[in-house]
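Step 1: inspect the first sequence and its tokens.
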Amino acid sequence: MMVGGTGPLDLALLRALYSANEPALRSAALLVTNIGEWQVLVPVTFAGAAWLLIRRHPRAALLLAAIAFLGRALVELQKWGIGRLRPENLKHLVPVKSLSFPSAHAANSMILFLSFALLAAPKRHRAAAVAVALAASFAVGITRPMLGVHWPSDVVGGWAFGALWTLAVLWLAERAGSPLRIEESPSN
């Protein structure tokens, strides 16, 4: 598992998703994968927290930042602790420096997008916001095997960790105090 993914299914999915020979697909994957880069997600985290502060939701703003930044740290600790190598049988279409499991792009996009959807969307729009968050995180994560830099199981692991981390922290935070989520519509 550490060298060859989780087995034949992981390898077959990686080969099926790999986009090196499909210029349009490769270009789309290169564009979408950038959304999951730290250079995008970190400023978006700060902007989201600032927006919540402006809207007078300081607890939600602090929680958004805490979930995102602590989650990022936990992803890196997992990579270091697990030590899984990236796929080597396909050319990497983007530069990579870290280990493979879990996919930080999948995990960190899930953490930020889902946190923001659950904390910032008014109740009547929350289901749609969560659907958009999941779709966006799915799009970011799927680009990683398309670019040959992650096993599909790395991406699934990233999504799973991101969702579990976000939901667990929000559940604990709500038990520790007043409701965190915006209940009024943005026009109020």
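Step 2: inspect the second sequence and its tokens, then contrast the two.
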Amino acid sequence: MFKKLRNIAKTRPAGVIIYWIIRLYSATFRLKIENEAQWLDYLEKGGRVLVCGWHQQFFAEINIFKKHKKYHPALMSSQSLDGQIAAGVVKNAGFYTVWGSSSNSAIAALKQISRRLKDYRLAAHILDGPRGPAGVVKAGAIAIARIAGAAIVPVVTVADRAWYLHSWDRFMIPKPFARVTIKFLPIIELPPVLDKTEYENQRKKLEITMRPYLKL
């Protein structure tokens, strides 16, 4: 029975229903968005932007996706059942799904999302998905940004009251009427040349910048 329900959850109608449930629930939040104008201005002037966040904070950020639909953004998702469910949800916010992950079809997926980012100039990436370890920035974000010639924009979410699930990332669901702040951190522009050492330095820099906002 549980398996049947999970399979239903990944269907297109279920994606629509789950998306609207999340939007309606998120409407109860006392939401504040910080520093969004900086990267939107960069995008409008012709720059390419890769918005990067933690898997733990994904739920709270879904509600703001719709406003960026006009840019035809892309998001990489794993082909696991949970990944298919998430893809069905974000599709209703205007996101194009690139199938793959750090552990499955990685090279093909990185090339595809990089091409999308070059063409449409906006994509999003979950830094520690799909299975973690939580709070560890994988190499994918730096690779995508480098290939596409994009700047990285870290996004973090803080809630004054939230539930944390017993999952690998302690997935966060803010409680109804919580004060929720979605904060875009300063733009990170990669150096024009990245050798192996600098590649790792940029990965660590991103991790150090965002890790303090994660609750483990």
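Step 3: confirm your contrast with the notes below.
The mean pLDDT is 90. The longest helix spans residues 12-26.
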